[in-house]
Amino acid sequence: MTLPRLSLVVCGLMCVLGWGVANWPSFRGPQGNGQAPATAKPPLRWSATENVAWKIALPGPGNSTPAVWNDRIFLTQSLDADGHERALLCLDRHTGKELWRRVVRYEDKEPTHRDNPYCSASPATDGQRVVVSHGSAGVFCYDFSGQPLWHYATGKIHHIWGNAASPIIYDNLVFVNCGPGERTFLVALDLANGKEVWKVEIPGGKYGEKPSEWLGAWSTPATVRVGNRDLLIASWPEFLAAYDPKTGKEIWRCTGLGKLVYTSPVVSPEVVVICCGYGGPALAVRPDGLGDITAARLWRTEERNPQRIGSGILLGDHFFQPNAGPGSVHCLEWRTGKVVWQERLGDVFWGSMVYAANRLYVTDKRAVTYVLAASPKFELLAKNELDGATTHATPVIVDDIVLIRTWRHLWCLRDSKR
Question: Which of these, 82, 254, 293, 330, is most buried using a 10 Å CB contact count?
Fold first, then answer.
C-alpha cells in the first residue's frame, strides 16, 4: 500500500476544491471519498459511557450524515413519520445545542421504505451557505444564520423505496441526483441563486411497485480531477458515466452495472470503483477515457456478490468495502479485483466507510463501530458499542471527534484524555 502517494492526491484535491482541513462539508467528506484530512486524530475507543463529549436526542429516525463547518453542525431531519415537516437543524459543534431549525412543509404523500425515513439526503455547505435536498419538496439553500436564499422545485421524485442522494458543491455549482423514480435526472444549480445551469435526463426510470421495476440509483455523484480536466462521475441503473461539470456534456460511459445502485462511485485520478446492490455486479475502470469505455474495464465481478448499500474506501493499491448482507468487510486489489481478505464482523452495514489516522471506521446497523487497520492485512483494532439504536448513517470525523447519528441520538465522541 503506497500511502505517501495517496496523501499527495488528497492534498491536491483539497487545494482544488478549497475545503478547510477541519471541516466535513458534505456526505463523503472534504474530497467526496470518505477520507478525513491527515490532521484528524479521532478516538480509537468509546462506548455509551466512555469518551462521550455530548449526545442529544433527535426528533425522530433518520439516515442522513451531518455536515460540519467550523463550529456548526448541519443535519437533515423529518419531524413527523409521514414526511410532511422536513427540517434542517443547525447545532453547536462543541455542545450539540440547537442554534436554529428551518422547516419545509410538504403536504403530498411521498412513498418511501420503512428503513429509509424521509430526509435521508445529507446537507452540503461551502462555509457560507448550506444546501439540502428534501426529495419531492425540492432543493433548498440557507445562509449560516438560517435565512432562506433560494428554492429549486424538482417536482415529484417517487419510488417505493424513497430517495437518498445528497447534494454536492463544486465551485459555484450544486449537483443533485433527482431520483430514483419514473422521472430521474441529474441537475446542476447555480449556488448563488438556485437557477438551473444544466440538466441530464436519465431514461427508463420506474416507480418500483413490482420486481420487474426494481431499478434505480440512490447514489451521490462525485467529482475528481483527471489530468487537466475535472469530471463529475455518477452511477445509474446499468451504467456509470462521467460528465463535464460545467456543461453536463457526457465525457464517457461504462456499461455493466446492475439495475439497483445504492453505493456512490469511489473515485481517484487513477480509478473509479462502483458496487451495485442486491447482489449485483461490481467493476473498476480508469477515468481517463472518452466515449464508450466499457471494453477498457479493469475488471467486473457478478457472482456471489453481497448486498451493498454503503460506499467503500480507496487507499493506495487497495479498495475496502463494507457489506449490508452479510455484515462483512472485504479488501481487494483495485487493479485486478482480487479479494485479499473478507471478514464477517457483526450486523449489516448500511453506512459508508470512513478513513482517518491510518484506520478504517465503519458502523453497523446496531450502532457498533468497528475500527480496522487500513492495511491489506486484516486487523481489528477496536469494537465500540453505543446503545444499540438503529443506525444507517455514516460516521463523520472532524479533528479529534467522531459524530454518529442514530435513530435516537446524535453522538459526539472524543478522547477524554486529550
Answer: 254
In a domain, 284, yes or no: no
Q: Is residue 199 part of a domain?
A: no
Q: Is 6 within a domain?
A: yes
Residues forming a β-bridge with 177: 186
Count CB atoms within 10 A of the CB of residue 88.
Answer: 23
Q: What is the pTM of this model?
A: 0.93
Rounded Cα–Cα distance for residues 22 and 20 (Å): 6
**Dist CA 231 CA 387 (whole Å):** 41
Q: Do the beta carbons of residue 91 and residue 71 sit within 8 Å?
A: no
The candidate with the shortest Cα–Cα distance to 75, out of 91, 96, 61, 59, is 91
Q: Is pLDDT larger for residue 133 or for residue 10?
A: 133
Tell the burial category of 320 from Cβ atoms under 10 Å away from its Cβ (0-12, 13-18, 19+): buried
What grid cell was written down for 347? 450486523
Computed from CA positions of residues 15, 249, 298, 310, in that sequence, does the dihedral angle turn out positive or negative? positive
pLDDT tens for 223-244 read: 999 999 999 999 999 999 999 9
**DSSP assigned state of 418:** -
**How far is Cα of residue 205 from the mean position of the Cα atoms in its chain?**
22
Give percent helix, percent strand, percent coil of the chain, each to the nearest 5: 5, 40, 55
% of the chain residues with pLDDT over 90: 89
pLDDT the model gives residue 198: 99
**Structural domain containing residue 7:** 1-63+357-418
Q: Is the pLDDT of residue 341 over 50?
A: yes
The pLDDT > 70 percentage for the chain reads 95
Q: Output the pLDDT for position 113.
A: 96
CA distances from 26 to 9, 23, 39, 199, 212 (A): 19, 9, 18, 21, 34
Model confidence at 13: pLDDT above 70: no
> Does residue 399 lie in a domain region?
yes
